[in-house]
Design a protein that fits this description.
Number of helices: 13
Mean pLDDT: 90
Strand order of the largest sheet: 3-2-1-4-5-6-7
Structural class: alpha/beta
Oligomer: single chain
CATH superfamily of the largest domain: Glycogen Phosphorylase B
Helix content: 25-40%
Shape: elongated
Order of helices and strands: EHEEHEHEHEHEHEHEHEHEHEEHHH
Radius of gyration: 21 Å
CATH class of the largest domain: Alpha Beta
Low-confidence stretches: 126-140
């Protein structure tokens, strides 16, 4: 920031998410906010926050009162979001609107008040026909998001795949969508010797440990993987499951008293990193269903990742048989993988070295890309003001 110029005031609003320590989504938001706060005045606003949300170099706020509630995150009340747009949005130079079921709506409200705003799409809400119990609401949200996003001066997508989906789903012009990946905390998820991590967690050195951090909420679940571990026939195999979700109790009943499967629940960020470091292999079947960690965090920590796929679709930045595996998400496919296709622990360590070398952009680069997108939107807003 040049000497004498005021610092940019940025508000990062996450309407449909509570601040949950140990959640990959919360961690991504806070990592981005920390990077932006090095050059700007940043406020991160979640739907709800716990009473003690730690100490940060930026302000943390909530749209609604009370602590985070158990269960899946949902959209905030229209009144709470409206009050933010009416009473607080004008305090900032730009508002960044995180993904939620009506992405783009807050951006539209800010535009009505002359406040530049950018929708951030890091995941797509379910298609309206996927939830027959709430079909009417989903159809309305689906249509409204399309209208708002097409009118937004710019949209930021978390990946090329999301950019293509936004173009196809909502007919947003591709040249108005910037692709900026998530910010991963490289200090937290740095390669750590496996033996050191296992000593910290009290885990046996001889076990073949797989760690999963999602598949506990809506969408693809851990049922096929749990069934495969139970049938693999390897006495050294262990499945450690991090995180929480609406399906956890049912999955615990499915696992039964099998000592090979352990549920740890939601754990702090440092223990998430420790479990990844202690693992031979990480597994992801449904990051958008609520995740304790992401594939990117595992790669950064130097651990290969097995992705449970549907229809053989690719999952960048995983390179099959180099930094991880693409496995059809079915019981038979996981059994075959665990019994035959999964390499030895020594080979998995070599794949971890390749995983740590995967090209990824650090938080500083991500923050710079966001600031460039923000500057473009603000210049456009200033030109419109001058033209009046």
């Amino acid at each position: 920031m040049p000497f004498g110029l005021p610092r940019l005031r940025i508000c990062l609003v996450v309407p449909g998410r509570d601040l949950r320590p140990g959640s990959s989504h919360t961690r991504s938001v806070l990592t981005l906010a920390r990077a932006l706060a090095l050059e700007s005045d940043v406020t991160a606003i979640f739907r709800r926050v716990p009473a003690d949300c730690g100490t940060e170099s930026f302000e943390i706020g909530a749209l609604e009162g009370g602590p985070p509630r158990p269960g899946p995150d949902v959209a905030p009340s229209r009144r709470a979001l409206g009050l933010f747009a009416e009473l607080r949005a004008a305090d900032f130079d730009v508002v960044l609107e995180g993904s939620w079921s009506m992405s783009g709506k807050l951006t539209a409200w800010c535009a009505q008040r002359g406040v530049p705003a950018i929708p951030l799409i890091d995941q797509l809400a379910p298609s309206p026909w996927l939830d027959p119990l709430d079909l009417g609401h989903n159809l309305l949200a689906f249509g409204a998001s399309g209208r708002h996003l097409r009118r937004a001066p710019s949209v930021i997508a978390g990946s090329e795949a999301l950019r293509n989906s936004i173009v196809d789903r909502w007919r947003v012009e591709a040249d108005r969508i910037a692709v900026i990946g998530p910010a991963v905390d490289g200090a937290l998820f740095a390669p750590v010797p496996q033996a050191e991590a296992r000593r910290r967690l009290g885990l046996a050195a001889e076990h073949r440990i797989i760690v999963a951090g999602d598949g506990l909420g809506p969408g693809p679940s851990l049922v096929p993987l749990i069934g495969a571990v139970q049938r693999a026939g390897d006495p050294t195999l262990r499945l450690h499951i991090l995180g929480d979700g609406t399906r956890r109790r049912a999955l615990e009943r499915l696992a039964g008293q099998n000592g090979a499967i352990t549920f740890y629940g939601q754990v702090p960020d440092d223990l998430v990193a420790a479990h990844i470091a202690a693992a031979d292999l990480c597994v992801s079947v449904n990051e958008h269903g609520g995740a304790a960690f992401t594939a990117l965090e595992c790669l950064t920590a130097g651990r290969p990742v097995a992705i449970g796929t549907e229809n053989g679709r690719g999952h960048p930045p995983i390179h099959h048989l180099v930094s991880g595996f693409l496995v059809d998400h079915s019981l038979l496919a996981w059994i075959r993988f665990l019994q035959r296709d999964c390499p030895s622990r020594k080979q998995l360590q070599s794949m971890g070295i390749a995983a740590a070398s995967s090209p990824m952009n650090g938080p500083d680069w991500v923050a710079a890309a966001y600031l460039e997108a923000i500057e473009g939107v603000r210049r456009g807003a200033l030109r419109r003001v001058d033209a009046r």
